[in-house]
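tl;dr need the bound structure. longer version: we got a ligand (S-adenosylmethionine) that a collaborator sent over and nobodys looked at where it sits. i said id run it. heres the input, straight from their email, havent touched it
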Amino acid sequence: MNAIAAGPRMPTTAAVPAYLNETYWWAYVHPNAVRLFERQWLVNLILWGNFARLRDAALRELGDELPGRTLQVACVYGDFTPRLADRVAKGGGTLDVVDVLSVQLANLRRKLDERAPVSLVQRDAADLGFADASYQRVVLFFLLHEVPEDVRRRTLAEALRVLEPGGRLVIVDYHRPVAWHPLRAVMTFILRNFEPFALDLWRHEVRAWLPASAAVARKRTFWGALYQLLVVHR
Ligand SMILES: C[S@@+](CC[C@H](N)C(=O)[O-])C[C@H]1O[C@@H](n2cnc3c(N)ncnc32)[C@H](O)[C@@H]1O
């Protein structure tokens, strides 16, 4: 496993997908982007003040104390992972965080307590390489809207493949807002111009990209349905 734990950085194993370099260099790839966006108030502003609400809803679904193995697929700006790591530490479990960009993993390492039971792993979400049924819970926080459809489908299949039977996949992401949503036009403009794959989540339910065997156990929407939370079982 290529983990950035306490020791030296290991060589990377997954290639950076073209869409990240082409579409998201300004948000995730360039070191200046990481410096700019790694601000709690800014990620909260990008989510129109909903960051804490969505973070806490996801954490509640995962549980207060998290024994066993937890997987977070893709880094998140702000304090999502430190808070998740606290719950994992309380439960005596371990947390693996996967991201395809080493710059993101290095940024996350700086946000974590050095005793946190967290391993950072440079992998592609669409090809995790972990054993089947090796995690009790998996979380995808605002990843699905950022990836092209084929990557989204493979990411969901991988998240469910590594989940134990009876485990839960928690997803938080964009959703089609209600017709009267005051920010509908603004969000259409922003997503169309800056996040070209995101409007897929307005057109389709996440179920459209799940393997046939998966079951959506719960769906909640937030803030005029601009955001959604799903709990999925394999
Ligand atoms: C979770 S998403 C967006 C999170 C949210 N917008 C935030 O506040 O940070 C961002 C992360 O996804 C990662 N990512 C994108 N495509 C990926 C892939 N195929 N495999 C692994 N990580 C990926 C990016 O490198 C980035 O760190």
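gonna send this back to them w/ a short note. The CA atoms of residues 63 and 87 lie 8 Å apart.
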